[in-house]
Automatic annotation (TrEMBL):
Keyword Secreted attributed: no
UniProt-listed PROSITE patterns: ELMO
Biased composition (Low complexity): 228-240
Lineage of the organism: Eukaryota, Fungi, Dikarya, Basidiomycota, Agaricomycotina
Protein name per its UniProtKB record: ELMO domain-containing protein
Function of the protein: Involved in cytoskeletal rearrangements required for phagocytosis of apoptotic cells and cell motility. Acts in association with DOCK1 and CRK. Was initially proposed to be required in complex with DOCK1 to activate Rac Rho small GTPases. May enhance the guanine nucleotide exchange factor (GEF) activity of DOCK1.
Ranges for region Disordered: 1-47, 228-247
Listed InterPro entries: ARM-like (IPR011989), ARM-type_fold (IPR016024), ELMO_ARM (IPR024574), ELMO_dom (IPR006816), ELMO_domain-containing (IPR050868), PH-like_dom_sf (IPR011993), PH_domain (IPR001849)
């Protein structure tokens, strides 16, 4: 490396020197030997020198030669290089700085800065605010973080959090939030710290700028469970910074956090209430925390946690967000919540009703029975008549709920709670009729639960493909109540008998499809009208028209089960295809986040407007390179020096950025719809970090690539995320239907009769054949 003062005798240049400026001594701007300087470096004293830096050198060697050239008295170890944006120059990014001819600054080394900040944290004087402001920014750097932690800075930071309030507390929490973006250094946070964060969030008096980082910290602790440790990488090693402290940060998780949450019962209530905050970022952080808790809830605490969310009516709060006009930033989080609710619903549906072992099940069943105002009877000395009075086929209540599980029990309980008098009236009215004319209400309730689960594709956890808001799904119990009332009304109006039950189920299925269509835009009162006011004749006529176009075979239980199985297989196939696209890599345009604070008239065309992204084979990092022009990228990762850790991506937000204003039609390869510079492109997406900042802002060249990458990145997430594009949603559905038709063609070609259900035959008259098999001794 060579360095040359800007004028003879080391005289200062103007504040913003450039290589094109003529030297003050009148000589050529080329330096000795015909070499051209690569960067300007400004010292702490304000002197700027032109330097030629060899890309092959390490940063420590560059600083050493600068110290020698500038005859600085302090050792090189106390210095570091930063660019004009105060980004630390490291061995990883120095080549990029040299290539871009970035202006550099010779400043204090991270060790010096860390020592000064730790000292100010301990002093707690008037400079504390400034120290925390610097700490918020510097703590993201591995070299600074290592030095800060080595000097017990974390202990000082926690002391500030425990003793401060207002803006100082907000700055300290933000610094902690940024530290926790690293995968080391915070493995020794104890329960008292977690409880302190919980208490901060529980207080309604806490400022919004305090609640934001506190929410992000709690979310990070929830996600730092041992099962998330796969893919964690150690910080990059170099000769300068010391090794990071030992110990994994993946030692917390849902159970550890929830134990402290139970000590502050108002926490969840406060977080749910903040979903309605006028501050969109606060609502976003609260939504992300709820999603994280739902995705990581452990089996021992799952029932308690979900019951508390249901008590707080979190569904209603999210439905309000859906109807809000300021939810652009929340769309992805709301879809994640929907996907989490699909998992909750599926788990309830597959959880057996066991009143002999689960007190909650027993209590719910007892409530349903008591509200019916009936008395038990005995058919004979051995047989009790109780549940059959409500419309079940048998007295084995666990067996009756086998297909719909706890979900069916909850739906029936909600129906009874909604209007206990109506429930008692209907039950007693049915018992007053001849047995063959009675509507089996409880059995009908379970059938309605099952067909609603089918309508919303409650097939398995992690397989949600909805790309639009589903407010009616979040109102599952209310829709069930309306559909069950419809079933009862159709039964009465049609004068049905016991043998007509399957026909009424088919009629209700048809009405559900009509009432719940265009769910994302349809008002609730129209749904109520469809279920409560439609006439039997009109519904029946429409169903007959549907049956002319659709084979009745599709409604049979074995076919519905086959569709559920094929749906999961189709989803997994599409997931692998999307991830394969990520492994192949693709070019994107770099975009401007809509939330940017840069004035419109100052936005300039970037020197490297294109970015190539590729996922590594281990599915842990997204590697990329920025370039002025597109070029053929070789296989592997040699051409992609930068990378983003997949674990750091908390959300894939869509419609979040716009093209740069000076990248217009002069480039023939721009995406469609990108001519308006500050309007969001429909083909844009941003990778948001756990702290809410953006890791990447990209614009795809076409709809197909946008769908491949947004859905592929979502499917990589541990909780499965949600599908963002209709292309993927329709693709999964099309594959399911094609697979189903192929399977049915195989059966119909053999003229196999598909039964409506499987009925076990009578038991054998004796079991001698079992014992004869066991006693059989084959010859030697």
């Amino acid at each position: 490396m060579s360095s040359y003062p800007s004028g003879e005798g080391g005289s200062q240049l103007p504040p913003t020197p450039t290589l094109s400026n003529p030297p003050t001594n009148g000589k050529s701007s080329q330096v000795k030997g015909g070499l051209v300087p690569t960067n300007n470096v400004t010292t702490k004293e304000g002197m700027t020198v032109r330097t030629r830096i060899e890309p092959s050198l390490a940063v420590e060697d560059v600083i050493r030669q600068l110290c020698i050239s500038l005859k600085l008295k302090d050792p090189p170890a106390v210095y570091a290089l930063r660019d004009e944006n105060d980004e630390l120059v490291t061995n990883d990014n120095m080549r990029k700085k040299i290539k871009g001819k970035v202006n550099l600054k010779l400043v204090n080394a991270p060790a010096i800065e860390a020592a000064e900040i730790v000292e100010k944290l301990g002093a707690r004087d008037a400079k504390l605010g400034l120290a925390l402001t610097s700490l918020r920014k510097l703590i993201r750097e591995e070299q600074f973080a290592n030095e800060f932690l080595q000097r017990d800075g974390l202990h000082e930071l926690i002391d500030v959090i425990n003793t401060s309030h207002g803006n100082i507390l907000a700055y300290a929490l933000t610094a902690m939030q940024n530290l926790m973006e690293l995968d080391y250094g915070w493995a020794n946070l104890d329960n008292s710290f977690i409880l302190k964060v919980v208490q901060i969030l529980s207080s309604e008096q806490s400022l919004i700028n305090v609640c934001r980082p506190a929410t992000a910290i709690l979310k990070k602790l929830v996600e730092a469970d041992p099962s998330s440790a796969s893919g964690v990488h150690a910080p990059s090693s170099s000769r300068g910074p010391p090794s990071p402290p030992p110990g994994s940060v993946y030692r917390y998780g849902f159970d550890v956090v929830f134990e402290q949450m139970r000590k502050e019962r108002r926490l969840l209530e406060t977080v749910v209430s903040r979903l309605g905050s006028a501050d969109t970022t606060m609502a976003l952080y609260s939504m992300m925390l709820i999603n994280s808790l739902m995705a990581h809830a452990s089996d021992p605490r799952w029932d308690e946690f979900i019951a508390e969310l249901e008590r707080l009516n979190v569904r209603k709060a999210v439905i309000r967000l859906m109807s809000s006009h300021t939810i652009e930033d929340l769309t992805s989080c709301i879809l994640d919540f929907q996907a989490n609710m699909v998992r909750v619903t599926f788990r309830k549906k597959t959880t057996l009703v066991e009143p002999d072992f689960e007190p909650l099940h027993s209590t719910a069943l007892q409530f349903i029975w008591e509200q019916s105002k009936l008395q038990e009877e005995r058919e004979d000395a051995m047989t009790l008549i109780k549940w059959r009075k409500l419309g079940f086929d048998t007295e084995d209540i666990g067996h009756e709920f086998r297909e719909v599980g706890v979900l069916g029990l909850d739906c029936l309980k909600y129906f009874v709670e909604k209007d206990p008098d109506y429930w008692a009236k209907v039950v007693q009215e049915q018992l007053s009729r001849p047995e063959e004319r009675r509507c089996p209400i409880a059995k009908a309730s379970n059938e309605v639960t099952d067909l609603l689960s089918e309508h919303w594709a409650i097939y398995a956890p992690g397989y949600s493909t909805s790309t639009t808001f589903q407010p009616f799904f979040l109102n599952f119990y209310k829709v069930h109540s309306l559909a069950l009332q419809f079933f009862l009304r159709m039964w009465n109006e049609s004068g049905s008998s016991t043998g007509d039950f399957p026909r009424l189920v088919a009629l209700t299925r048809s009405q559900v499809k009509v009432a719940l269509k265009r769910e994302n835009i349809r008002p609730w009162h129209e749904v109520e009208q469809e279920f409560l006011e439609c006439e039997y004749r009109a519904v029946r006529d429409r169903q007959m028209q549907e049956l002319e176009m659709e084979d009745d075979i599709m409604s049979k239980i074995p076919v519905r089960n086959l569709r559920a199985k094929l749906y999961k297989e189709s989803f997994e196939f599409v997931r692998q295809q999307r991830i394969h696209c990520l492994l192949e890599g693709a070019w994107f345009m770099n975009g401007i986040p809509l939330a940017t604070t840069v004035p419109r008239d100052t936005l300039k065309r970037p020197t490297r407007p294109w970015r190539f992204l590729r996922l590594d084979a281990g599915l842990k990092y997204l590697h990329y390179v920025d370039s002025a022009v597109k070029f053929p990228v070789r296989k592997g990762l040699e051409d992609l020096p930068e990378r983003i850790e997949i674990a750091m991506i908390s959300e894939v937000a869509t419609g979040t950025c716009a093209p740069f204003p000076h990248i217009r039609g002069d480039q023939a390869d721009l995406p469609l719809g990108s001519s308006s510079p500050l309007l969001a492109s429909s083909l844009s997406f941003s990778l948001l970090s756990t702290s809410g900042g953006s890791l990447a802002d990209q614009i795809a060249p076409d709809q197909a690539r946008w769908a491949d990458w947004t859905d592929g990145l979502n499917m990589l997430r541990r909780d499965g995320g949600h599908v963002a594009s209709q292309e993927t949603e329709l693709f999964v559905q099309a594959l399911t239907e094609i697979g189903l038709k192929i399977k049915l063609l195989d059966l119909s070609g053999e003229k196999v009769e598909i039964p409506s259900g499987l009925v076990a035959g009578p038991p054998p008259t004796n079991s001698d054949f079992f014992f004869s098999d066991l006693a059989y001794d084959p010859p030697a």
